[in-house]
Amino acid sequence: MDHDIIIERGPGDPATTAAPEPGPRRHPTRPLSPEAQALTTEIAAALDETAPDPVGQIARAVARLGPAQARAFLVQVQEIEARGGRMLPDGSRRRTPGGLFFLLLRQSTDLSRRDKVYIFPQLFQQTKARAAAEDSAVAAPTSVAWTDETYQALAPQLHQNTGRLTTVKITVIGRPGVAVEQGQAVALALVSEKVPDLPKGPPEPPAGTRYTVFVARKQWAKVAEALAVDAEDAAIIEGYAALDPRVEGIAVYATSATTKRLQAAKRVAQSVATP
Question: What domains can be seen in the chain, in order of their start residue?
Answer without folding.
Answer: 6-139 (1.10.10.1440), 165-273 (2.40.50.140)
